[in-house]
Specification:
By secondary structure, the chain is α+β, with helices and mostly antiparallel strands. 43% of the residues lie in helices and 10% in strands. It has 2 domains: 1-311, no CATH class; 313-391, Leucine-rich Repeat Variant, CATH 1.25.10. It is built from 16 helices and 10 strands. The longest helix is centred in the last third of the chain and has 29 residues, at 362-390.
């Protein structure tokens, strides 16, 4: 078969198996990307989740020595939740970012790409190929941009003219030549809505993200969250959608045809307090199929505690006190101390004072001390105001 015929057959088959967009790119080195990644590393903007070998990230022949083409795909996912449950006093809820709605997209995209891979082998039995979805060595976004899926936005997301940025990306490197598509010429223009809205200023300039300050990254870390970011977290349990929500390209975009990504509202907007008493098995049974569970329950429980502080949920004080006194993980005890300090009140102060007597971990002790200082200052201010009012 001629290369153009192979490409046309793959395009037709992609539509049959529910791939929303497919594009084809050369397997030439990503020279400009490599230069950007070097600067990115020098500035300390990497998350640490990336493939550390920049050559592997930018040279497809490191994956397949005879690589000639890359096939990029995109699947659209929903941006709106049907009938979302609302928080109410004593029953506050957290939120998972849209990239964790429904079944883990890694599995869904890989299944689509495996079907596409089999189709390629039917067309060209001698073809060699390798599939990548997010955790592969290549940059999904750089491949998608070259393959004409969309353009790289100022928020670093790929913006498809047809689907917006609510898309999952994957690719397949192959040693078969397939005519490449043209990159999209559309751009963000003068719009800076995403940069202006970023809660932590992580979008340091158009197209450059300081991952170390990005809430989507921070929600996935396992250690203590720096205090400067705790207030910014709100009730986010996993990920952050702010820069995509405010994007004008995404206005009124909501694709719901991929059933695998349909959210269970009780899973993606769960009650907070029950998350803190789950066993590992219960956590896996309830959230294990979601992309947001990949780091385990500890980061999500830490984020849950921060969310309870965000809501100043006084009904959570007994539970936070129990965690502070009994949980074996310093991060959970320390974050509970911080939350008690934010929620405030006499019972919170008593819980902190009691824990201070027996706590031995230095970081947790520091969190308890800071929380007590905060509460003592607030108590002092209240007394001063009462004296002025009734004096």
């Amino acid at each position: 078969m001629h290369s153009a015929e192979i490409k046309a057959a793959l395009q037709a088959y992609a539509g049959e198996i529910g791939i929303d967009q497919i594009g084809f790119a050369s397997a030439d080195p990503f020279v400009e990307l490599k230069e950007r990644l070097v600067r990115h590393r020098e500035l300390g903007y990497e998350s640490g989740f990336e493939e550390p070998d920049l050559k592997k990230r930018t040279e497809p022949t490191e994956t397949i020595p005879a690589a000639k083409s890359i096939i990029a795909i995109a699947l659209a996912y929903p941006s709106k939740m049907p009938h979302p449950p609302r928080s109410k006093e004593g029953e506050y809820r957290g939120i998972f970012a849209r990239a964790s709605w429904g079944t883990d997209y890694h599995h869904v995209l890989r299944a689509k790409l495996e079907k596409l891979q089999q189709k390629l082998l039917e067309l060209v039995p001698v073809a060699t190929s390798e599939i990548m979805v997010d955790t592969g060595v290549l940059s999904d976004r750089a491949v998608a941009e070259r393959a004409g899926i969309g353009w790289s936005g100022k928020n670093t997301s790929i913006l498809s003219p047809h689907l917006g940025s609510w898309i999952y990306l994957g690719e397949m490197v192959t040693d078969i030549y397939l005519p490449p598509d043209q990159p999209v010429t559309q751009s963000c223009g003068e719009c800076t809505a995403c940069m202006d809205a970023c809660p932590t200023g992580a979008l340091v300039q158009p197209g450059q993200l300081n991952a170390q300050a990005c809430i989507a990254y921070l929600t996935q870390t396992k250690g203590f969250l720096a205090e400067q970011y705790r207030e910014k977290l709100g009730n986010r349990l996993y990920g952050c959608d702010t820069c995509q929500v405010v994007c004008p390209i995404n206005r009124k975009v909501n694709f719901t045809h991929q059933e695998a990504f349909t959210p269970d509202v009780e899973e993606v907007k769960p009650l907070l307090k029950p998350l803190l008493t789950m066993s590992n098995r219960q956590f896996k049974n309830r959230f294990g199929h979601m992309a947001g569970s990949w780091r385990g329950k500890k980061p999500l429980q830490r984020n849950t505690i921060i969310a309870l502080a965000h809501f100043k949920d006084h009904s959570s004080i007994p539970l936070l006190q129990q965690l502070l006194q009994e949980d074996p993980r310093p991060v959970i005890r320390g974050t509970s101390a911080w939350a008690l300090g934010k929620i405030g009140g006499e019972s919170a102060m008593e819980a902190l004072q009691l824990a201070q007597v027996s706590e031995e971990d230095e970081e947790v002790c520091a969190e308890i001390a800071q929380a007590l200082i905060r509460l003592e200052k607030e108590s002092s201010h209240r007394e001063e105001k009462e004296n002025v009012t009734f004096g």
